[in-house]
Design brief:
By secondary structure, this protein is α+β, with helices and mostly antiparallel strands. It is built from 15 helices and eleven strands. The strands form four sheets. Strands 1-2-3-4 form a four-stranded antiparallel beta sheet. Strands 8-7-9 form a three-stranded mixed beta sheet, covered by helices on one side. Strand 5, helix 6 and strand 6 form a beta-alpha-beta unit. The longest helix is centred in the C-terminal third of the chain and has 23 residues. It starts with 8 loop residues before the first helix and ends with a strand.
Length: about 450
């Protein structure tokens, strides 16, 4: 994340996707070291090489002075908010979260290597990577580079040898920046810091690099080029990219009006579901219903549907877990078959839509779920089913005294075979937001949606 503002829900899809990937690998017995770098300096407002640094933009927006202290105040504010978003979505925190500002020395060392190899050159505004000196540019990582013209995501710069040459170091136009002798004070390019931190904490090549599809044509191409050119090895063995969350015909972006944060989702949640507190995990549930490589169209209707769906999901589990008292806690043979089906779907390119549908279909045939079965589901899907189902069960069974009296009156009417009055009392209970379920062991009274 670039911590110059709050993450929006489109950004957060990348982290849910990576979390499911990590959980699936771990369940398959792999040890996972996950690194998520914090970009708190050096990321321009786009993938091009001109415009403001995003952190400088944040300083201007919030009326802060152009000092490193103020920059770090903003960075820590939004980094803290980002980590809280991860926790709210039940995303496992990474093994390491290195900050770009703490790796300037390493950035300079990598740029110096590229200059000394004759692969980078100096202009009046910075140091650039010369793609003509790296003939594999745009062919690594299984990507199709395609055409990209100056003025799109490539800045127009008459001093550049090639339109696609990208900045490794940008010279400062003020006295704000880091010294890079003998070239001058400035800032690292966005691409360079990712290569530096991944190599430092994972080695090169490391196994899997994730990200959004918008990083393919520029950012990830540039990471690959500078890392391979400097050290001779590929940056990563496998590249996995998630699709966008769209608002209408456009992808969600912080620069537009379709900037929705997790907090915004809470504010837009269904009023009579707020007391259950099922958000923002309902958003995780919403994302898991689609394959990570499929675009998602977000709308108010879709968000409401996700909340109701997740509520119903928990409701079904809470019913079945409540009946598990005194039974074996280990998965039954039928549950083991379901788990094998789910694991097979996740092993097949993280098909998360299948487990959701498979579990819904199982509700019709399963009266009871073992606790271990639910724990394994939680370890794979991260929907916090066991904990949230318990919380839901506690809330829906809290019944006010006036509703209890109506239910008792209804039972009296039923014993007297006054079914008309019994039905009227049931309707009255329903209007108050509760429901009565008649069972062999007596009526069950609980809050309803």
């Amino acid at each position: 994340p670039t911590v110059y503002n709050y993450a929006h829900i489109g950004n957060l899809r990348s982290y849910v996707f990576a979390d499911v990937l990590r959980r699936t690998l771990q369940y398959n017995g792999y040890k996972v070291k996950q690194v998520m770098n914090i970009t708190d300096v050096g990321h321009l407002t786009s993938d091009s090489d001109d415009g403001d640094d995003k952190m400088i933009k944040a300083l201007k927006r919030e009326g802060k002075p152009f000092t490193f202290t103020a920059m770090q105040e903003i960075a820590r504010k939004y980094e803290t908010a980002f980590v809280e978003d991860l926790k709210a979505l039940n995303i496992q925190l990474p093994s390491v979260m290195p900050r770009a500002i703490e790796h300037i020395k390493e950035d300079i060392e990598l740029v110096r290597i590229l200059v000394e190899k004759g692969i980078a050159y100096k202009t009046s505004d910075g140091i650039y990577f010369d793609i003509s000196k790296f003939h594999e540019y745009g062919t690594r990582g299984g990507f199709k580079l395609g055409d990209l013209k100056e003025g799109a995501r490539v800045a127009v710069n008459v001093e550049k040898k090639n339109p696609r040459d990208f900045s490794l170091w940008k010279f400062s136009t003020t006295n704000f920046g880091w010294d890079f002798p003998p070239y001058g004070k400035g800032f690292p390019g966005w691409h360079i810091e990712c290569s530096v931190m991944s190599r430092k904490y994972l080695g090169q090549p490391f196994d899997i690099h994730t990200g959004g599809i918008d990083h393919i044509p520029t950012h990830h191409q540039n990471e690959i080029a500078q890392s391979k050119a400097a050290y001779g090895d590929d940056l990563a063995k496998i590249w996995m990219h998630n699709e966008f969350v769209n608002m209408g015909a456009e992808k969600m972006a912080k620069s537009g009006d379709n900037f929705i944060t997790l907090q915004t989702l809470i504010e837009r949640s269904i009023p009579n579901l707020r007391s259950f507190g099922i958000y923002p995990l309902a958003y995780r549930y919403y994302l898991l219903q689609a394959h990570y490589r499929s675009p998602i169209n977000f709308s108010e209707e879709a968000w409401h549907s996700a909340q109701i769906g997740y509520y119903g999901f928990l409701y079904k589990f809470s019913e079945r877990l409540a009946k598990n008292t005194g039974r074996s806690q280990e998965p039954t043979e039928e549950e083991q078959r379901i788990l094998l089906d789910i694991l097979e779907s996740l092993d097949n390119d993280l098909n998360t839509a299948y487990p959701i549908g498979r579990l819904w279909s199982s509700f019709s045939s399963f009266e009871v779920f073992t606790t271990r079965f639910v724990e394994i589901l939680d370890s794979l899907l991260g929907l916090d089913i066991a904990n949230q189902s318990r919380k839901l069960a506690e809330k829906i069974t809290v019944v006010p005294d006036n509703i209890k009296r109506l239910a008792e009156a209804r039972e009296d009417a039923r014993r007297q075979k006054d079914f008309k009055k019994s039905d009227e009392l049931r309707d009255q209970i329903a209007k108050e937001g509760f429901e009565v379920m008649d069972t062999d062991s007596g009526p069950i009274l609980r809050k309803r949606l």
